[in-house]
Amino acid sequence: MDKLKRWTDMTWIDINETRGEMIALIPCGSVEQHGPHLPTGTDLYIAQGIADKLAGAGLPCPAERLVMTPPFFHTYAKESDAWPGTLNLDGATLALAVRDVAEGLFRQGIKNIVLLNGHMESYAFIMEGLQLATGDKSGVKAISVNWWDFISDGLIDKLFGDKWPGWVAEHAALTETSIMLYLRPELVRMELSEAGVIPAPLPYKIFPQKKETLPPSGMFARADGASADIGKILVDEVVNKLAPIIEENFRN
Ligand SMILES: [Zn+2]
Known about the structure:
Layout: E1 5-6, H1 12-18, E2 23-28, H2 42-53, E3 66-68, H3 91-107, E4 112-117, H4 123-134, E5 141-146, H5 153-160, H6 174-183, H7 228-250
Parallel strand pairs: 1-3, 2-3, 2-4, 4-5
């Protein structure tokens, strides 16, 4: 098994037979510009790629019980609304969509959810959706995970040193480019990776957004220094830390 089972590849009979034990893994991404060199699906491809590495990794994780549901592809990436390619839900819509899907799973007798998120801006709305879905129920459990929360400052320092721009600027930059070079190299066009002019970040936000505060390339930091080898180190780190957490939370 080199990838997780897919909900949409199963019949209702398959789901009926396995739902008592099932851990539904919901990948969450974005449809968002990722600079000139990465595809708009980057955040989802990273979440799905990490999830699939849980299968067959020989780690303390009940991977045979994990089923990947259809993803949340459209989420909330409004800081990238100024670029072609970005498609969004409103934050309230996303929160309610997460609530509805989680409640749908619970209604069918699936008690365990792992939501694996690949896009920072969505996180508050995802948490709201899971809170709404679980708040009035007993016997159900959902955990939400941002992949970058498993990457320590020490590892970042070792891998990138002075080139590290900070997580806030990490959009289409060192970590995402490295992980995509490892997971989906056919979709990365490194020769087009040019951050261009990056305006100094403001310590506040302006609405409506002002174009002159945004980098024309869509990159908030440079990606040179990214590599597939680094991508593998980052993905392995997340998988190695996430697997025992799933085991611990959803042990039978
Ligand atoms: Zn991203």
